[in-house]
Each structure stands twice: as C-alpha cells, then as structure tokens.
Amino acid sequence: MSEYKLLATDLDDSLLDDHYSITATDRKAIERAIGAGIRVVLATGRMYRSALPYALELGLDSPLITYQGAYVRFPSGNVLYHRPVPFETAVELLERLKATGYHTNIYIDDNLLVERLDREAGIYRAISGVEPVVVGDLALYLKEVRREPTKVLVVAPEERIDSLSGEMKGVFGESLYITKSKPFFLEFMHSGATKGKALQAVAEHYGISPAGIIAVGDSYNDLEMLKYAGLGAVVANAREDIKKRADYVTRANTDGGVAGVINKFIFCGEDLL
User: Where along the chain do the CATH 3.40.50.1000 domains lie?
Assistant: First the structure.
C-alpha cells in the first residue's frame, strides 16, 4: 500500500465511459480502494443531482465536488460550502451572453434553467439526465427572483469557444473563474470556485495533506485539481496540452483509466487489466 489517502476523480471523459457509465474495471478498483480505507471523491462540473447517482452507485459517503467546485455537498445532504456567482456580475454576464446568440444555462437550487428548449438544451439534457426548466430571458428572470446562480454555462461551436473565453475573461477575468469542460462548453463560476479549491476544502475536512491525494481528470477544468494533488493523473483520451501538465498518463476512460491509477499508485502494482 502507498501513502495516498484520497482519490479525487472527474466524471465525464475520465471515470465515465462514452455512454456515461462507470466501467466494471473502474468500479471494482474503486471498491478495492474504499475497502483499503481510501477516501474517494467525485469532482465534476455536473450538477449535484446529476452526480449523486454515481456516488450512490459506488457507495460513497464523501462530499461531492460539483459545479466545478462551486457546490460541495455530502450524499447525506449536508452542504460543505456553496459559492455562487455574485448577483450583479451574473446579470451583466447573461446580458453579454445573450448578445452572442449562443445557448446558455443557469443553475439555481440545483435546477437547470434555460431561455428556451432548443437543440443544445436537448444535448445537455442527454448528458446530465436533468430536465431543463424554461424561464424565458435569463437576465430578466434573475432580476425578478433576485437569486445568485451557482453556475452559468454557454454552449458554443468549438471553433468559437477560445475567442469567446478570451472576450469574457477580458471583462470578468478578475471576478469570475472561467474554464472549458467539454470543447463546446464554456463555464462561469465564482472566482473562488475551482475543483482545486474545493478539493483543498474536502482534504482539510478530513485532515489530509496534498501529498496524500491523487487527482484524475481530462480537461482544462481539472487543471487546478491536478496541480493541488500530490499526484495529478490524466486519462489517455485527454488533449495533448492537458497531458503535458500531468504527472502521469493512464489508460483511456473507456479502458479502465481510473483503475490503472489505483492499481499502480495505491496498490503499488503494475497498470494491468
């Protein structure tokens, strides 16, 4: 056994395969790690209600890091913390995003709110398993309810995402954390809401130092978490610029990538199927 005490893993394109399921190989490895006393934490951009079924499937009792780290909550229902987007900033952001014409989601009380049901809303529903609620103009809705959204997400063509990110960072770079999850998802959170900061909060809750943590991910929104952990691993299907920032590259998400990390670094064996 190694000195690692906590394993944090992203869901989509990392622990989940291309059908949004956990492979039998990964499930068995996680069960073995839990049996050896390892704390397993899911760290995802998904909504809490979208991530919870996976935590229950694995029998986890650790906090779920959701909304890219903006909302951290135990499966029991207790909230470790919630860092929503400040109200005035959210309204300005939504007004600017509306001018782009791209589909946008906001999230309040773990509900998915959209302006209208369009193709992008259907794609997001298929990924998350959550039914969107149509509320009309999002900025106007926010002004009416006077609530701070947990997260704002815009769906845009992949070839536009980077330039849109640059434009938005030019305006909100000091006040918001802006990151890509999937190549066509650009996400906006509270400046203190990252997977890295959320993982730190969970680790401190359990009295675990960064040196005792392994993090597994695949995308830009995982970088802060990978940097915070003593060992940052990425799956083989990650983009090359993400792989370059990792300590270790494991197998793909469809081939038991998380299991490979567990076998090699927690049980100090070979990365074998």
Answer: 6-82+193-266
Cα dist from 272 to 191, 192, 261, whole Å:
40, 38, 10
Count other C-beta atoms under 10 Å from residue 272's C-beta: 9
pTM of the model: 0.95
Print the SS3 string covering 26-83.
Answer: HHHHHHHHHHCCCEEEEECCCCHHHHHHHHHHHCCCCCEEEHHHCEEECCCCCEEEEC
Provide, rounded to the nearest whole percent, the portion of the chain with pLDDT above 70: 98
Assigned CATH topology for domain 6-82+193-266? Rossmann fold (3.40.50)
Residue whose tokens read 């919870």 = 52
Q: What is the CATH number of domain 87-190?
A: 3.30.1240.10
How many residues in the chain? 273
> Which residue intervals of the chain are DSSP H helices?
24-35, 48-58, 87-100, 119-128, 138-145, 158-172, 195-206, 223-228, 240-243, 257-261
CA 211 to CA 56: how far, in whole Å? 27
CB contact at 8 A, 100 and 40: no
Cα distances from 122 to residues 32, 127, 132, 233, in angstroms, run: 37, 9, 9, 32
Assign 183 a pLDDT band (cuts: 50, 70, 90): confident
Tokens of 10: 């992203």
Residues 176/192, Cβ–Cβ less than 8 Å: no
